[in-house]
Structure formats: C-alpha cells, structure tokens
TrEMBL record:
MF terms in GO: D-xylose reductase (NADPH) activity
InterPro entries found in the cross-reference section: AKR, AKR2D, Aldo/ket_reductase_CS, NAD(P)_OxRdtase_dom_sf, NADP_OxRdtase_dom
Classification lineage: Eukaryota, Fungi, Dikarya, Ascomycota, Pezizomycotina
Protein name: D-xylose reductase
EC numbers for this chain: 1.1.1.307
Annotated active site: 51 (proton donor)
GO BP annotations listed: D-xylose catabolic process
A Pfam family recorded for this sequence: Aldo_ket_red
Organism whose genome encodes this protein: Friedmanniomyces endolithicus
Pathway given in the UniProt record: Carbohydrate metabolism; D-xylose degradation
Coiled coil feature spans: none
Keyword terms: Carbohydrate metabolism, NAD, Oxidoreductase, Xylose metabolism
Length: 321
C-alpha cells in the first residue's frame, strides 16, 4: 500500500496530501468506489452536498469500517457548504444533515464551496441543491461572508467540524477574511493545474499557514466530459509534449507527473478514478521526485486558463473577474 505523506494544518491537525475526489462519481457505483479506494489506501475523501452522493459515500465508509479496513479516526472526510445555505441560521442545520448522510459525527474539514450567497431552498423542496431557487431563478441572498464564516466557526468550536475550509476565494477575499475571523481557515481549495498555476495565491496561503488543495489537477480533462467548449478546444495536459517527455523520463504516467508537480510543491490533490490500477497509481505519486527544472517547465505552461467558472455554466456571477 503506498505511503502518503500528510500536510500539517495551522491548528495542528494533519491532512493527507493525496485524497479521492467525489465530484461526478455516479450514485450507483459510489459506495463501491469509496470502499475500493479505502482498500487501495485512500484516507481522504473530498465530498460536497452539491455532488449528490454523500449518502452513498457514507455507505462505502461504513462498510469499510465494518469490515475492519479502517477506523473512523484514520479517515479525513471533507464536505462543503453550498451557496444556498450561507444564511447564518442555515449553516448548522445543513451541516448536521450532511453529517447524517455520511453517517459520521464530525467532518475533518468543512468548506465554504463558493464565495456566493444564494437564496435558501429547503432540502425538502430540492436536494441536492443547485444554483437555482425553488422558482428556477438565480436569486442572491444578502448573507455576508463574515456571517457565514462566523457560523462555520461555531461548528468548529462545537467540534462538529475539525477544520474550516474555503474554496474558490481570491486573495482579496482572504485578506478581508483575516481581518474579522476568530480562526484563520485551515485550507483553501482551488482549481489548480499547469494551465492555471495561481502562483501568487498559493504563496499568499503559504504565508498565512493555509494549506492549499488543488481540484481539477488534470486541467481540461474533467470539463471535456461536461461538453465545455473552452475545454474541448484546449490541448489535454496528458497530450502536452512537456508533460509527456517528463513522464517518459521517469517511467510514470502523465497523470502521475501532474499530481507530483502539485504535491512536490506542497499542494494537496484529490483526483478520482473508477479504475483500480489508476486508483493505485494516483495515490502513489510521492514515491518519486521531479527535478527543479522539470517543475519549472510544467509551471511554465501557465495560461491563466480557468474552467470551473460560474460563467462557463451560464451562471451570471463573474467572481473571478
């Protein structure tokens, strides 16, 4: 079983540097996928109520614990607060619902999914949530991030979550947050790949002791599946000459090189795969090192090209403008 190093968070808790992302994992296979990932050696699972598969993910975890593959305290379970639950009185109830769906007493990390507050929709009306309200419109809520974050801190102080995360925040929002927060966030999750390096944002986080987790480590790959035009017109990183040459030199796959490019720079990754061989290969990405020049060459592919932008889904909310 591959050995995965941990990154120490600013509250002393340790988080695996490589985890398994649950975005786009089908409901009918999710429980088995999580179970098999635990069997292979994954200990971090990155979920969200928006993914619509938290109950199934919890079933996979419960089966693995029952079969003696792992103990709850050996797992690092991540979930996220969706945009329509930003009103401070909605944060704790939805977190408790998500905990119940997972079948656990606490989340190791609970993340504000987007710095976007939308009108509340009761989970009894529609769940998993979406960008639209009950009338099918995209309606903002007036909940300021300060109130939402304070509600997250209450969860943290009560022990319902062991770490507070933010996602899709830019530098200005982080600098603003640190003016009023009681607890500096432990982690930031961002789109991060060689086409979108975000060097300054990563360095800002490191200076504040905020761990960075990359999602969409393979760049356009995930978004081609969503039929996104900008992804379909972009060269896949797996086919990029620089990445392929480095992979051949190290006798590794392009995917492993891309993941190592991140983890060697202390950026955590959360790839997913339904293939058992690729599951193991993605986990085993800290057993080799890239040369400094190779890391710089991969970073040099930066195009500032972002795929996970609300505008790309037809959502008129340009948070990265």
């Amino acid at each position: 079983m591959p050995s995965v190093p941990n990154v120490k968070l600013n509250n002393g808790k340790e988080m695996p540097l490589v985890g398994f992302g649950l975005w786009k994992v089908n409901n009918d296979t999710c429980a088995d996928t999580v179970y098999n990932a635990i069997k292979v050696g994954y200990r971090l699972f990155d979920g969200a109520c928006d993914y619509g598969n938290e109950k199934e993910s919890g079933e996979g975890v419960a089966r693995a614990i029952k079969d003696g593959l792992v103990k709850r305290e050996e797992l690092f379970i991540v979930s996220k607060l969706w945009n329509s639950f930003h009103d401070k009185e909605q944060v704790k109830p939805i977190c408790k619902k998500q905990l119940a769906d997972w079948g656990v007493d606490y989340f190791d990390l609970y993340v504000i999914h987007f710095p976007i507050a939308l009108k509340y929709v009761d989970p009894k009306v529609r769940y998993p949530p979406s960008w639209q309200d009950a009338d099918g419109k995209i309606t903002p809520s007036k909940a300021p991030i300060q109130d939402t974050y304070a509600a997250m801190e209450e969860l943290y102080d009560e022990g319902l979550i062991k770490a507070i995360g933010i996602s899709n925040f830019n530098g200005a929002l982080i600098l603003d947050l640190e003016r009023y927060c009681k607890h500096v966030p432990q982690a930031l999750q961002i789109e991060h790949h060689p086409y979108l390096v975000q060097k300054d944002l990563v360095e800002l986080c490191k200076s504040r002791g905020i761990a960075v987790t990359a999602y969409s480590s393979f760049g356009p790959q995930s978004f081609v599946e969503l039929d996104m035009a900008s992804a379909k017109s972009t060269e896949l990183l797996f086919d990029n000459k620089t990445v392929k040459e480095i992979a051949e030199k190290h006798k590794k796959s392009p995917a492993q090189v891309l993941l190592r490019w991140a983890t060697q720079r202390e950026v955590a990754v959360i790839p997913k795969s339904n293939n058992k061989d690729r599951l193991a290969a993605n986990l085993d990405v800290c057993a080799f090192d890239l040369e400094k020049g190779e890391i710089e060459a991969i970073s040099g592919l930066d195009k500032g090209l972002r795929f996970n932008n609300p505008l790309n889904y037809g959502i008129p909310t340009p948070i990265f403008a």
